[in-house]
């Protein structure tokens, strides 16, 4: 278990501190020295692995490749398996093709560790790249190898690893601050994203237009009612039944034809809203580097990054109760 803890910690520290790919470029780096960051990460990993550590300290047998086979078979739809044999790192991708880009991002993080620190032969781990945790928090899960994941949730045993998007974030806050000084930025808060957050349907088994109930839809509706304080829009439909996207855009407006804005486009605003979709928000790491004030809506899917970021220092917490009084009127329903 010490090796697993060291591996997870190594991945976290390397992904967070590699030159040119720091997920927060300035805001967190100014607050957290590397020694403090490593201490926090080590404490997180130790806490997440406590159940396995206790089990093996009491004489449980070490895990073997058959145990990892079983773990991967259970979660292979949305998990990547990484192994080191004869000094070479290989990855077995998930069976679901939509997960492949994330799985390859995890593989690149492992490649970084291989080149900077090295990984021993015999390494064999499974990493969940889904938006949500997959491993139930039961005694049975503790008797299997730990499943590393991007996020976790109460009642699940997934061990939080590096947020995949953090390894891709490469925002130069100083350059943005020079090119877009604070006083020149828009006072209108900004959000843009896709319609993740449940498979969208209108009618059918669901008698209510369920897209209208989702937090992101409510956020866009606030924007429609109060465009002077919030610019929130969908840029695409990630999970819509046929025809629903057209109906959604009729009510909430047409998406920006240029799609999701660049970091520079977001940095034109003083305030950025961050809100979960189907699972954790992958944009949080990117948002922290553009010099804006970030309003992060409370999450049910804590990640390694959200556990380190400090409320009212790195972001302003917002709450789902914000949406409780925001309803679609009958005229707005389809």
From TrEMBL:
<keyword id="KW-0808">Transferase</keyword>
<comment type="similarity">
    <text>Belongs to the glycosyltransferase 90 family.</text>
</comment>
<feature type="signal peptide">
    <location>
        <begin position="1"/>
        <end position="21"/>
    </location>
</feature>
<feature type="domain" description="Glycosyl transferase CAP10">
    <location>
        <begin position="118"/>
        <end position="325"/>
    </location>
</feature>
<dbReference type="InterPro" id="IPR051091">
    <property type="entry name" value="O-Glucosyltr/Glycosyltrsf_90"/>
</dbReference>
<dbReference type="Pfam" id="PF05686">
    <property type="entry name" value="Glyco_transf_90"/>
</dbReference>
<protein>
    <recommendedName>
        <fullName>Glycosyl transferase CAP10 domain-containing protein</fullName>
    </recommendedName>
</protein>
<dbReference type="InterPro" id="IPR006598">
    <property type="entry name" value="CAP10"/>
</dbReference>
<dbReference type="GO" id="GO:0016740">
    <property type="term" value="F:transferase activity"/>
</dbReference>
<keyword id="KW-0732">Signal</keyword>
């Amino acid at each position: 278990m010490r090796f697993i803890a060291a591996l997870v910690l190594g991945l976290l520290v390397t992904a967070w501190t590699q030159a040119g790919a720091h997920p927060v470029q300035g805001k967190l780096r100014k607050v957290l020295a590397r020694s403090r960051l490593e201490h926090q990460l080590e404490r997180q990993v130790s806490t997440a692995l406590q159940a396995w550590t206790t089990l093996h300290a009491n004489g449980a047998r070490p895990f073997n490749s058959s145990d990892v086979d079983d773990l991967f078979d259970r979660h292979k739809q949305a998990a990547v398996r990484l192994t080191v044999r004869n000094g070479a790192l290989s990855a077995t991708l998930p069976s679901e093709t939509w997960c492949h880009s994330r799985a390859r991002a995890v593989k690149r993080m492992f490649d970084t560790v291989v080149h900077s620190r090295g990984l021993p032969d015999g390494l064999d781990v499974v990493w969940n790249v889904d938006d949500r945790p997959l491993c139930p928090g039961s005694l049975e899960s503790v008797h299997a190898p730990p499943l590393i994941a991007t996020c976790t949730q109460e009642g699940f045993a997934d061990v939080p690893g590096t947020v995949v998007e953090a390894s891709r974030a490469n925002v130069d806050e100083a350059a943005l601050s020079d090119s877009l000084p604070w006083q020149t930025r828009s006072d209108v808060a900004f959000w843009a994203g896709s319609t993740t957050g449940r498979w969208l349907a209108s009618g059918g088994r669901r008698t209510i237009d369920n897209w209208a109930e989702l937090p992101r839809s409510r956020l866009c509706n606030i924007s429609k009612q109060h465009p002077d304080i919030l610019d929130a829009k969908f840029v695409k439909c990630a999970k819509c039944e046929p025809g629903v996207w057209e109906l959604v855009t009729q009510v909430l407006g047409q998406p920006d034809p240029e799609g999701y804005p660049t970091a520079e486009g977001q940095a034109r605003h003083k305030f950025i809203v961050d809100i979960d979709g189907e699972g954790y928000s992958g944009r949080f790491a990117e948002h922290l580097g553009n010099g804006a004030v970030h309003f992060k809506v409370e999450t049910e899917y804590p990640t390694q990054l959200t556990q380190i970021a400090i409320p009212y220092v790195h972001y302003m917490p917002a709450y789902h109760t914000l949406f409780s009084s925001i309803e679609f009127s009958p005229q707005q329903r389809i």
